[in-house]
Amino acid sequence: MFKVIRTLVTLGLLFATNSIVTASPAGIIKRDANTCPSYPSYPYYPSRSLASRQNGNGMSFTGSQWIWTNEVNGGNAPVGTRAFRKTLVPPQGKTPSSIKVAFAIDNTGTLFVNGQELATEGDWFSAGTYCVPLQPYQNVIAVNVTNGATTPNPAGLLVTAEVTYTDGSTSRIISDGSWRASGASIPNGWEQPSFDDSTWALAVNEGAYPKAPWGTIPIAGSDAVSLAPAQWIWTNEVTTPGGAVPAGARALRRTVILPPGHNSASAEVLITADNEYSLYVNGRFVGTGTDFQTAQRFTIDNIQGPKVVIAVYAVNTLTVPNPAALIASMQIKSTNPSYECLPDCSSESYVVTDVQWKATSGVPNGFEQPDFDDSTWPAAVAEGTVGSAPWAPVTTSAAVSAPGAPLSGAPAGN
Prior knowledge:
Blueprint: E1 10-15, H1 50-53, E2 65-68, E3 80-88, E4 96-106, E5 108-113, E6 116-122, E7 128-133, E8 139-147, E9 156-165, E10 170-174, E11 180-181, E12 201-202, E13 204-208, E14 231-234, E15 248-257, E16 264-274, E17 276-281, E18 284-289, E19 294-304, E20 307-316, E21 325-334, E22 347-352, E23 358-360, E24 381-385, E25 395-396
Parallel strand pairs: 1-5, 19-25
Antiparallel strand pairs: 1-8, 2-13, 3-8, 3-11, 4-7, 4-9, 5-6, 5-8, 9-10, 11-12, 14-24, 15-20, 15-23, 16-19, 16-21, 17-18, 17-20, 21-22
């Protein structure tokens, strides 16, 4: 069964214990003024901006294979969690410095670096990109992926990665049949560098990207932010996509956790709603829109993490039930300050409106604040992609939109 939710892959970048650089207790290699000089000098390229990376200098899934375990039968795999590992041995004479990994999964997972959790994502319609330092010798990528639903259905893992060496050269890693895959039973410590995966079977190639049913997947930091991977969403008052729902204001939220050590971020967002909205990030008012067929573009700087909460006050106007929906796409860029000597070692998350959002028919006081508890809110309901009726066509502002003022009845924001 084709799943609505795109879920997160667990990529654990696990590293060998022999090292000439001291690791933190959690296993993450920290590069600072004391540890950077332990590597030979090499050209430190100025960090490229988000815009320049999106203009052709980024990563791509082209050449990568969707992979799974040998349990795949007729395109379907059993429900449950499986683990995948790839050992990276540097070419002779090369010393690894860092790795940037983009991944997509069907359905859920978590990314670890050297045994420490790095990121959790959902849905395969867009991919996050994460950069971390490497050990100077052997390294391991480990991925934990859960195939959801209640009956066998398509499942997969897709990875592209770029290893940067201390001489400034790079090499590419892709998901393919050389990866190791666990069975239904995953041993404790499978994500650790010392784990022996020699008895695991080789992964099975399901087909080269952009294989159906997954299609084309944009990568944060490499592809420009777009509404294409997003879905129109609303509260669970929706019974039929695009159908009539009661008029009035609604509150919607999505929480994103930055990678460890990433305590500040910037973002670019495209957003519109039927009929009106006011957008907040960590309680700060960002902007308002009142025409659902024109998406606004906003940029947000100095977002204080590690938690990033996107909150929307959306209003279905008129006085009788009618269609209502919100659609948004956001790329969030962050950097660990201890990686400052690594060239362009930032991480980017791609957040789109989907069923991972929370949505409620009321508008509680303080819902836009990052510490608000939305744990009892139901999941949002997906109504279709950006080209779906009755909202198409939607045009996108090329320039950054003026913020305007919060809607009447909306929070003032910080």
